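Input record (one chain):
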Amino acid sequence: MHGGRGRSAGPRGLRRGDGRLCEPGDAAGRGGARPGGRRGGQGRTGSRGGLGVADVATGAAVTTDTRFYIASATKAFTALSFAAMARRGEVDPDAPLADWAPPSGVPADIAARITLTDLLSHRSGADNAPIAFRVAYSGDWTPEVLWRLTAETRPRDTPYGQFVYANSGYNLATVLSERRWGRDWREMVEDEVLTPLGMTATTARIDAARTSGAVVAAGHFGRIPGQPERSPLQKTDATMQSAGGLISTANDMAKWLEAQINDGRVGGRQVFPAGLVASTHAPRVAQEATFGPYVRAGYGLGWQVGRYGDDVLIHHFGNFSGSRAHVSFMPERRLGVAVMVNEDAFAGDLADLVANYAYDWFAGLPDIEAVYDAKLDVLIAERDRRRAGIAGALEARGKRARTLSLPNAAYVGDYVSAAYGTLTIREAGERLSVAIGVQQALADYLTEAEGLRVELTPFRGEGVVFTLDADGRPTSLTYQDAVFVRR
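The corresponding structure, as predicted from the sequence alone:
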């Protein structure tokens, strides 16, 4: 990364180009864009670059055209799409759902109270866990299933108007909008945002991107030193969804950030009506939170609103099973940074470190190289701590006593939940495997009787607990706080 002051930018290893950037997690690769980079005037496109390997299975190098999964940074694209429709008068974002959405399973009292803005700013006080699970994790859905599952919308324990971050608001909004206007969320984002901006490499259609020959970064984990491993859970079309479902490149993210900094103006052309893009940055709900060095005070439409040091920072990050994205900009300094990393369990914080370095470098932070060398050392120490913790936990689980009372074969079968789908138990040698949709993993034992522990999402242990009938036969199980009945 080069900063424009005639010297190389980056702490030890980031600077030398010797692979040190990958060291905190032995991550496979990193792509990044830094639009802006000067005070005043129009934001401009600055540095873009890539480093490392996109996929250890192919050895493909990361370039500025490598497509990375941007996870929850997708929300800003979805929200801007709705804002564009609202600007044309096609939907009133502050009208109750009942006023514009076709009659659905959403309970009448909720549909009469909450608005599109409520859903997009995480203040609705409502949730729909089954839809969010199916579209992001299992991939077991059809439009008809999602429409039926609108009836699973429930009030949260927290009140209406309070910020509670979740994917379900975006998912519910796009299920309703698809039924209303006949466009799924992918087509909506393509029509409203990606095509106007010329972001031709950004897409929700990850399967087609892979088969087209484009280099798509795979998610990885740096659990073992020097041996980055591909995540067993990679995104597919079925799990690319409106709250986290785009892949993009450093080149395209430069356009996206230029649009944010310049209120819809890119390359000297006003792509969106003046005020439209800026309107999505305005907070719709308050919060008091910190995320690493960032202080968060509000949430707009697809954007976290806060500060980094003394500077306003509009930002959104995202991660999923080996992928991590940092997208942010400082409107007052007209500077933005996007960093995409294909390792998130042990080096995901590296994305933030790189972005912070760019901001601090342009701010003229004294002794920046020494400061960031020290920060990198802290990150490496944290990586090593995490590795040791994972290794210790894995060893401890391997020593657990078997807590199932019957032979493994007795538990084999399909277990069905109307809300969450079909969970399948199969024998895999001396162990049991658990699968639901595209997710599959070998199970360990819980300490609880008749219980399995499974990581259908890597590094997220969950329980599967069987219920036996009076004859001692497994008739159901509990997973995701839902009951699945044996078929």
